[in-house]
Task: structure prediction
Amino acid sequence: MITKHVHNPLITPADVTPSLEGYRVLGAFNPGAVKFGDEILLLLRVAESCEPKEGVVCVPVYRFEEGQAYPDIMEFDSADPGLKLRDTRGVSYRGKEYLSTMSHIRLARSRDGVSFQVDERPFIYPMNSSEEYGVEDARVTPIEGKYYINYTAVSRDSWATALAVTEDFERVQRLGIIFHPENKDVALFPEKVGGKYIALHRPNNSGLGKASIWYSESPDLIHWGNHQCIVRPRDNQWESTKIGGGAPPIKTSDGWLIIYHGKGDNNIYSLFTLLLDLEQPNVVLKRGSTPLLYPTEPYETEGFFSNVVFSNGVIEKDGDIYIYYGASDESACVAVIDIDSLLTAF
Result:
């Protein structure tokens, strides 16, 4: 029922210009997606590290000065006893933590939804201390004539969800953090329900259960309440670790269609379908019993973080649903399915 496009991956790290001399692009993945005019825009997460140097450990950083932000590189002598390499992403120097990769959001543009041209400069990038370790995994929702972009802001205070808004994808107004640490996988509904804005979110669960999908309401897109856990991981190989929301919901005559992700055995990420009631979106009508999409192709099973398919963005085009997804935390891909087939994939 679903077809992975023959031209996958659509965008790879080689297609992206580094944002600073001395940086190298490791990933262009997890794209948000939206129609804008006669184009389809992807909001790519671009992950960058530093070009290696002999005897030196380099990390990408941002400097914040007088309301402006500048990408930069910090260098440490690899023999310095104050330096500790945490893992593939972490560096500690004299008690201060750094990341070996830094992410920002980059626009890619297409007229057919398959052939994309990636902008040369970042679109959303770290601008303050709440984003000092990068901005990741954007989702974009058209609401009342504007385009609301939520993304994960990473800092020494962990990760949270921030919101921004644009009308032209040139100027962006930041609205601040809307879900405090630790919370991500936020998907805004494209219209009010019962006079309120609605969102799905995924607070971290380090207590008695597993990370799940939650529901919330807001009068203004900034202040959120009436939080309810509506979908929990099932005891199967695909959801054994956690689940989380995906792209913004699609409104259909049957209900709000959600494509969510599950992390299962052996750290495999796959995609599932979920249907919520149109008038009461906290009510689950249907839930897919088997994955809609899971890693099978080499670009999905091998990469920076292998065996991952992860979607932030879907669009409707010519009666089909284009599901844009990140593969192996490295490239951007698309899978296509008609809406009727998607609604019967439960």
